[in-house]
Amino acid sequence: MIVVYDELYRDHLSRVAHPESPDRVASVAAHLQAQGLFNRREPARDATLQELELVHPRSYLDRVARDVETVGERAGYLSTGDTVIDGSSLAVARRAAGGAIVAMELAIKGGCGTFALVRPPGHHAEPARGMGFCIFSNAAIAAHAFVEQHGGRALIVDFDYHHGNGSQAAAGGGVSFTSTHAYPQYPGTGSAAENALRADAAIVNVPLPPDRYGTEPFVATWQRLLPEVAARVRPDLIVVSAGYDYAAGDPVGDLDVDGPLAARLLAQLIREVAETYAAGRVVYCLEGGYDIATLARSVEETVRVHDGPSQSSESADPASIGAPQRAILERVAAWSS
After folding, report:
1. Which of 35, 82, 158, 268 is the 20 to 30 A CA-CA neighbour of 187?
2. Angle between helices 89-110 and 138-150 in degrees, nearest 10
């Protein structure tokens, strides 16, 4: 599996005690290297202003530039809300969005899976508002860049503990979005009432309990959800918001899920769906995951699945899915029929 990575990602918040620390990507990179899984590494590049504007208006890009210049070497907050920034944040965020685009281009060229090992994450960044730990909407930018360059349809698949409100806000124009997430945890969005089937995109949310959902129902929910959404959208590219903070013990998330096992089973499913609809083209963009050892092992499992022979996903018990989630999935199935 091709991994897109850049040492610049370690600069953002390097002198700040913060859950979204440089150790997240540095430790994953070192772990992949130790496992012999970092041989197909490719460099990132900066996203151009035109690429960023596929999701974010120029007024927001100008605001980020002003805010970063204002904080200088100190840490401060992006003026749109709760996002911590320092003097390196604009440069690193542009390289993160560019890394996602490079991963998309490599997936298209090779008909394969790629992993953008980037930070800061992006799925909370709305078009005109940075939120959470996110500045630019990396996955959504890559998805829209694909549609602009190649036409067709892209599907953002978000299994992070938290709802990808920014990715959802960027849906449209051939880019669809589907997510499971703890609800009503931060950012408080992503109820089933927000689901929509439009001519140019689908939005499908399956909110989960905020804790103790468990491995079996988590995987089973996705094994029913993703094929249904893909059958309706028929994506030419899958872009995964790969947030592993659903794992048991994660200090920011935790759905009581076996992190590495779920990562392997989800990757099997995503690869199978990508091979069915998208000629094998799938891009993973790192989002959450704050227990670093679990994060590293989860990314390892993802990479191993895409490096190995193609195989059907191992089935989880559909009877384990919670009743509220089953009701949503039945409505989604009616869409696709």
Report:
1. 268
2. 40
d(CA 34, CA 31): 5
The pLDDT tens digits for 36-72 are: 999 999 999 999 999 999 999 999 999 999 999 999 8
Residue 28 sits in a domain whose CATH number is 3.40.800.20
Please name the helix (run of DSSP H) or strand (run of DSSP E) that holds residue 238, with its range, or none: strand 237-242
Cα 50 to Cα 90, 97, 115: the distances in Å are: 15, 12, 23
Residues labelled catalytic: 124
Query: What total of structural domains would you count in the chain?
Result: 1
Burial 214-236 (b: 16+ CB within 10 A, else e): bbbbbbbbbbbbbbbbbbbbebb
What stretch of H or E contains 175?
strand 175-182
Task: Name the residue among 220, 228, 125, 128 with its Cα closest to residue 176.
Answer: 228
Q: Per-residue pLDDT for 336 more than 70?
A: no
Distance in angstroms (rounded) separating the CA atoms of residues 150 and 32: 31
d(Cα 235, Cα 273) in Å, to the nearest integer?
9
Domain hosting 211: range is: 2-336
Helix (H) or strand (E) holding 144: helix 138-150
Helix (H) or strand (E) holding 299: helix 292-307
